[in-house]
Amino acid sequence: MNRISILILTKNEEKNIFACIESTRQLAGEIIVVDAESSDKTGEIAKKTGAQVFLNPFKDFAGQRNFAMIKASCRWVLYLDADERVTPELASSIKDQTENTNNNFVAYRVKRKNFYLGDHEWPKIEELERFFKKDQLKGWYGELHESPIISGKIGELKGYLNHYTHRDLSSMLKKTIEWSKVEADLRFKAGHPKMTWWRFPRMMLTEFLKYYLGQGGWKLGTVGLIESLYQSFSIFITYVRLWERQNEDRNF
C-alpha cells in the first residue's frame, strides 16, 4: 500500500482525538495533527498515540488544511476532523485505490454519515472530497466552507466516514457561540443586505424546513425535531450577530 498521511485538524478535542486516530491505524503512514492552540489535553493525547502535533493559530479552515498539507510527506493525504471516524469498509476502499496501478483518479469523495445527539443517524448522507494525491492537490480556499483545488479526475470511495457531531446541548451551544461570529463576519464583509425584522423569521423558517423536510429530519422523531429547531436557532444567532455588526455605530 502506498503510504498515507492522515491529517487531522483540532481545537479542544481531548474527548475525540484518540478515537479518531485509532480509526486510522491500518492506513496511516504518518499521523499529523494541526492544532489551533487548544487549551485542553488534545495535543498531549495525540502525541501519546505517536502522532506529530503542530500548533498553528486559527485564521480559517483553508489555512489549517494548507498548513497540514505542507507538513505531509506521503504520496496520499486523508483529511479528517477530530469528531470523525474511518469505518473498516472505508479503510479497505482506500487501501484498494492506493494499490490499484491503473488508478487514474487524483482525488476521492467520501460519503459521510452524521450522528446527532448520541448515535442517531441523520437521514441525509454528505459527499466530501477528503482523499487526495498530494502532488495533485493545489491547495484549499474559502474562509469557513473551504474547498480543495485539484487537477484531475475525482472518484468515489466505498464505505462511510462517521461524523459524531452535536453530541449534547452544551457542545451544540458552544459551537454556535464560537462559529456564529465567524459566519456573521463573513456575511458582513460580503455586504449582506441590511437586516430587518422580516429577515429573521424567513431565515429561521427556511433553515428549519431544510433540515426537517428537505433532509428528512422528520424520520427521526423527537431527535429530528430537536436538531431541525436547533439549526433554526443557530442561524438566528448568526443573523443577530450580523445585525449587531451592521449597527455597531448606533445607540440602541
Notes on the protein architecture:
This protein has 252 residues and is of the alpha/beta class. It is 39% helix and 28% strand. Strands 1, 2, 3, 4, 5, 6, 7, 8 and 11 form a nine-stranded mixed beta sheet that branches. It has a two-stranded antiparallel sheet with strand order 9-10. Helix 5 (169-189) packs parallel to helix 7 (222-246) and helix 6 (199-214) packs antiparallel against helix 7. The model has no long low-confidence stretch (mean pLDDT 93).
**What does the main sheet amount to?**
9 strands, mixed
- Poorly predicted regions are none
Order of helices and strands: EHEHEHEEHEEEEEEHHH
Shape: globular
- How many β-strand runs? 11
Number of helices: 7
Mean pLDDT: 93
Distance between the termini: 63 Å
- Assembly type of the chains comes to single chain
- Radius of gyration from the CA trace? 19 Å
Strand content: 25-35%
Helix content: 25-40%
Secondary-structure-based class equals alpha/beta
Furnish the topology, listing elements before pairings.
Blueprint: E1 4-10, H1 17-22, E2 28-35, H2 42-48, E3 52-55, H3 61-71, E4 76-81, E5 84-86, H4 88-99, E6 105-116, E7 120-121, E8 126-133, E9 137-141, E10 147-150, E11 153-164, H5 169-189, H6 199-214, H7 222-246
Parallel strand pairs: 1-2, 1-4, 2-3, 6-11
Antiparallel strand pairs: 4-8, 5-11, 6-7, 6-8, 9-10
Helix pairs in contact: 5-7, 6-7
What labels describe this entry?
252 residues; globular; 7 helices
Task: Briefly say what this structure is.
The chain is an alpha/beta fold.
